[in-house]
Each structure stands twice: as structure tokens, then as C-alpha cells.
Amino acid sequence: MEKKLSDEPPETAEKPEVPAQKPLRADAQRNRDKLVEVAAQAFAADGVDASLEEIAKRAGVGIGTLYRHFPTREHLVEVVYRREVEGLCQAADELARDHPADVALELWMQRFVVYIATKRGLATSLRILLTTNSTLFSDTSGRVSGAMRSLVEAAAAAGKIRADVDASDVMHALGGIYSAPNTPDWRERSGRLVKLLMDGLRFGARG
User: Fold this and answer.
1) C-alpha–C-alpha distance, residues 7 and 84, integer Å
2) Which tens digits make up the pLDDT trace of 118-155?
3) Rounded distance between C-alpha atoms, residue 194 and residue 111, angstroms
4) Which of 6, 84, 87, 199 has most Cβ atoms within 10 angstroms of its Cβ?
5) Cα gap 71→53, rounded to integer Å
6) Which helix (H) or strand (E) covers residue 196, if one does?
7) DSSP label of 181
């Protein structure tokens, strides 16, 4: 039976590692990174109540290793959320470097759908963290919208999308994906909506 993690670590629980103070061994860092990667996939697919035992198993480690890195479920959720935000922002830079401006924007919006899927899975714990961890949202606030703004403005400047596009309007349109019903074909439908949105953005572009 899976051990249930409480919202607050017991006094005897081992504190999470702080890399700046005590760098992890290479193998421990690989285990931690793998746990976060697998947890992101599990939360996106099954929600925040995804089995921690199964996450550890899929990551190739024991449940004790997961507890050593993440004493509470909420701590794991926080790390996953920060990872998703960081990955989304890095993707904006990489796509802008490697693709035409409109293609970079469309690919990033498709990546945004994956981010939203994970965020939907984390919703319950994120609401808890909103009241208990003020730095989580202050640290990440504005980073995603800033990444989108840079892509929208680059595509408009290149004449690949309409010049009158406001990045905040695009973000608002994409935000509707978050509240869409969680049907089995949610991801496929969201991907089609991104394509329709891009068709609208390209309509009337200079070239």
C-alpha cells in the first residue's frame, strides 16, 4: 500500500536537498531529475493523486528515494511546476532560434498545451501552494506571458502574422483551453484549436 504523504513534513522527516548548499552526487541528481520528469507525465495523465509508488517505479528507483528528495507531495508538485514553467520559457528561445517566426509561435503554442495538461493535473495542490508558498507564484508570474509576447512580436515584425495582434489576447484565447471539459480527446481538440488560432493570426499578414 502506498505511503500517504502529508501536506506538512513531520518533524523527523529529512529536509529536501538544497543544491546550492550541498550538491547532489551525479547518480542522485539523475534519480531526482528522472523522478521529476516521470511525475510531470503522471500528473498530466492522472492528476495530482497519481500514485507516488508508480512514479518511483517508472523512474527506476525505490519509494524511499522519492521520499528523500520530496518529503511531501506538495514539494514534488512545486518542483514539477517550476520545471514546466522553465521548460516552456526555454522552448520559446530555442524555437525562435531554429524556426521561422510564425512556425516558432505555433510550435510553442502546441507545447503550451502540454504545459496546460500538467497544470490541470496539479490544480488541487497548486491551490494549496498558492496559500502556503508565496514565492512560487511570484517567481514564475509573468514568465510564460513574457515568452509568448516575444514570439508574437517577432512573428508580427516579420510579417508572418497580423500586425495588430495583441499578445495578451492570444494568451487569453489559449487560456480557454485550461477550462475546457476534460474529455478523452482533450489534447487532440486543443491541438486543433491552436491550428485554428494560428490560421486567424496569419490571415491578413504581409507575407
Assistant:
1) 22
2) 888 888 778 777 777 667 777 777 889 999 999 999 99
3) 10
4) 84
5) 14
6) helix 186-202
7) -
